[in-house]
Amino acid sequence: IVLINEVDPNNNVIQSYNISSISWNNITKQDSIYSYTTTLPNTKSTLNVQLTFNPLNEHMYVDFAGDVIPILPKSIKYQVELQNYTFSSSLNTMEFVFKSGIIDKGDDCVYDESTTTKKSLDSIRSIQMTLNGETLIGTFSDRIVLDDRPSYNKVNQLTDDQIIKYQLNQESLYVSIATTYFKSSVVVDPNFGVLVSSNPDSNACKKGFASWKIGVIVGCSVIGVGAVAATTMLIKKKRVQAKFDNQMKNMNKSQ
């Protein structure tokens, strides 16, 4: 998560919260499910992030508000909840901004790179980014939970003008999830995973797979996934906890 924005009916940003600069508390209590919480600056609003790691070598399927979402093997499902936020007006909306992309490429050879976006009606359903035979897939539900009630939402890719307006990195891809006014809480549930090509071109680059990693940076206006802004997707189960804690200490480097 990069940002959480409160937006008025004229698309003016009333309040903006930079998630990458927030400190998080680790409240994890069980294996494969990692929980973090924080408070938005100058508010009494609580932002909770739950990460569920699929340790299996097969897909898991999760029902979120009636939308069945596949979780890839060895990948992560995020669930973000914002509680007790006080809107300036009941006409305003909340925007969660995710930064999605391939990171840490450095100076390595890039011989195959592409980005594909799939939509369901007018809402983004998934984003697929490929680099040198490895594919990062982000899936976005068109559902949210507002005040404990399932509701539909719309997922958009930020335009160049919006990226400039929000002062974000213009070389990155950003996705926003907008929610309507809520009194108590809102829950958003995206997930991300990595597929490894079975036939990578080993002769295209000499540095090998270990010289770079695919990652995802999730930035959001209302979502709070900033706790894991630079989570490496190719992880071992036993090392997940340490990696998340380390990433949260260095979030400022992800923007």
From TrEMBL:
Record keywords: Membrane, Transmembrane, Transmembrane helix
InterPro entries (alphabetical): ComC_SSD
Protein name: ComC supersandwich domain-containing protein
Domain annotation ComC supersandwich: ranges: 4-195
Short name of any one Pfam family annotated for the protein: ComC_SSD
Record's keyword annotation contains Manganese: no
Transmembrane parts of this sequence: 212-235
